[in-house]
C-alpha cells in the first residue's frame, strides 16, 4: 500500500505530458490541443507527432486555425492556400505518402499539419507516419489524429459553416490537469 501511495503522490506532483511514467512509451510524445471554437467541440484532443518526419512545435500557438485542406486528402497543390497560410492544415490519410501531404501544406504556408485517419474502424491506435524515402525535407510539425477526433472536428467545421476550428496548441498539461480537461466523447486516451 505504501508503494502505491508513493507512486500516486509522485505521479500527481510531477508536471508531465504523458499517460505513463515510462518515457519510452509513445504516450510520452503526444501533443494535446484544445478547440476554442466551434463551441460544440470545445474539448481537448490528443494527437501523435511523427517520430521520423517532422519537427517539434517551437512555440505555443494561441487562437490559430485548424483548417481542412482542399482537397481533403492533400495529394495535390492545395486550393485554399490563402486560408492555410500561418495556420494548421487538417488533411485526411490516404492516396499518397505522408511526406507528399506535408509538402503541399508547407508550400501553402501552413505552420503544421494534422493528418486524420481515414479508417473508421481504427479506434484505439495511432499510425506511425513514415518517410517515403524521396529525400524531401519536412520543415513543419506533423501529427496524426485518430479518425473519430478528426472527423468530429471536420463535421463541426462543416455544420457551423466556418473556415476552421480555432485551437490552442501545444498544451503543456500536468498529469493532474489531464484528468480534468474536457475530452471529446469517445476519445481514446488510454
UniProtKB/TrEMBL annotation:
Could you list this entry's UniProt keywords, alphabetically sorted. Answer: Glycoprotein, Signal
InterPro entries hit by this protein: PA_dom_sf, PA_domain
Q: Which Pfam families match?
A: PA
Protein name, as recorded = PA domain-containing protein
**Signal sequence span per UniProt?**
1-23
Q: Which domain of life is it from?
A: Eukaryota
Q: What is the lineage of its organism?
A: Eukaryota, Metazoa, Spiralia, Gnathifera, Rotifera
What sequence ranges are listed for the domain PA? 71-152
